[in-house]
Design brief:
The protein is α+β, with helices and mostly antiparallel strands and 155 residues long. 19% of the residues lie in helices and 36% in strands.
Amino acid sequence: MPEQTIPDVRKSVTVAATPEECFKVFTERPGDWWPPSHVLLKKERAGLAFEPHVDGRYYEWDVEGNEIAWGRILEWDPPRRLVMTWRIDGNWQSIPDDERASEIEVDITPVDGNTTKVELAHVKLHKHGEGARRIFGALDGPSPGETLERFGKLF
């Protein structure tokens, strides 16, 4: 499927916090904002974490210690930018590598001294192949969307 046929999905939220606080909450407290229905494991999820460096994983683990990676960190630039792969297929199941993974870009921009805009973009959705349109349809909608709405409530 040609890249240009699947648009990016961009959402944002503005919060009363500094960019540093936003980056820290996003990367160190994903369990506080990650939608509880977004689970790849078959058993109950016990936690979520980001490995804080380029090529690190962001992953979840279950109560039995099984782990599954949601993707890999492509850019780690605190407190302004985070880019990662998103390893799911068109049926919302985990895929083992980045060959068919789209990307998620998180840009954190100060608005003023105590307000920050956090933008989350799903890009390169065409990489999901035949399921790309279905994924786009599920993601597309009004801002901020479920994930950033949950994130914004933490401030």
